[in-house]
Amino acid sequence: MWEARAVQGRGPELLEWARSRVLAREPLRREVLRAPQDRVLVLTWWEADGLDAELPELPEPDAELITRPVHRWRFESVE
Predict the structure, then answer these.
(1) pTM for this predicted structure
(2) Does position 50 have pLDDT exceeding 90, yes or no?
């Protein structure tokens, strides 16, 4: 999961930025979501062996577009 918070009022620009990013390879599934406070989340599903697998990541947007560094989390399905 990738999450960034845009500078106030620039949420639509960050959302478009996230939608336009191309990864080195395609995930099984990808969803782009928005949240309050101009936050954008990108969830990707991969065929991988464990949480330490080498996977493509979305980069950091330009610093003037975001209020803080991007947060990234990895999860694995347990069901």
Answers:
(1) 0.90
(2) no
